Amino acid sequence: MTMMIVVAAAIVVAGGLLIGAKPLQPRALWTVLLAPDGKIDSILVWTLRLPRSLAAFIGGAGLGVSGYLLQTLTRNPLAGPGLTGVTSGAVTPIVFCFVFVPWLSSVYYSLVGLAGGLAAALLTFWVSRGGRGRPLHLALGGISISLFLSAVTTYVLLLSGPQVPSLLFWLSGGFQGRSWTQLTYMTPWVLIGTAGALACQRVIGLLALSEQAAAGMGLQLSFWKPLLLLLAVFPVAGVTPVAGPIAFVGLAAPHIARLLRPNGPGWTIALTAALGGLMVVAADVIARSVAAPQELPVGIVTALIGGPLFIYLVQSRSFSFEGKA
């Protein structure tokens, strides 16, 4: 199943390479991919479209894995980068640094986002009784913190003057103009989170059963829970400086993966990453083709899809978290 999702994502990526202000024919695309010649079609594919599509896939994969880890940590189906305050916690200090610390290189924005995301997640978990409260309790705590941080971000935007348009463009979420450099900058953070989650799959399986069962089997919760939280924030810290906040992917991808019932936590993590990548790549293709030559922010497309899904999850009678080792 995971391989099928990856193949579907590859097909969407290939289709996205054909779509744009200057459409390409499949034969021309194949020629350019095999033998780039520096002409206009080659530049379109290798400089503009391919790194953008790969960045969308890797970013979506990272957000999906982050959501899966947060849901497992809290045993809460409403947990995710957005609803636990992680995304807002990463965004606000980055905007602050962009406006008030302009001499700080963007290379350090991931570290800034990592610190902010961790702080916001810890605060949300504290508000929701360590993540063990009712699902709506966690959601309300995360939304409250996100709203507070969004208000701070808005205030900073009001003070930013001529920098507002570029910041608003980034805050809408998207991969417009993303290059190989930004892809290289983002990928290690996603790989650390994903590889770390796969390496901890046995621990994740035990936590998915219950904290009591995990502790009874000798798991050191005081060590593993903070480590998994750190791994959950790593992808968000890498994706946010490059693409801005992308909504609902971290909430939806783990749920869809569980509906497909993969065999064990390792396959669930891999399937969640593949689904997250597919969702964002598809959203990116829609965003730049539905109103061509104008583009919609990817964050708007994912929000339009994820909003109804979130309402369904909240109202569903079968709204629960189930895990297996």
How would you describe this structure to a colleague?
By secondary structure, this protein is mainly α. The chain is 74% helix and 0% strand. The chain has 14 helices and no strands. The chain has helices at 2-18, 26-34, 40-74, 86-100, 109-127, 135-159, 164-171, 180-199, 201-209, 211-216, 221-243, 249-259, 265-289, 298-315. Helix 3 runs antiparallel to helix 11 (221-243). The longest helix is centred in the first third of the chain and has 35 residues, at 40-74. The two termini are 20 Å apart.
How are the SSEs ordered, and which strands pair?
Elements: H1 2-18, H2 26-34, H3 40-74, H4 86-100, H5 109-127, H6 135-159, H7 164-171, H8 180-199, H9 201-209, H10 211-216, H11 221-243, H12 249-259, H13 265-289, H14 298-315
Helix pairs in contact: 1-3, 1-13, 2-3, 3-8, 3-11, 3-12, 3-13, 4-5, 4-6, 4-11, 5-6, 5-11, 8-11, 12-13, 13-14
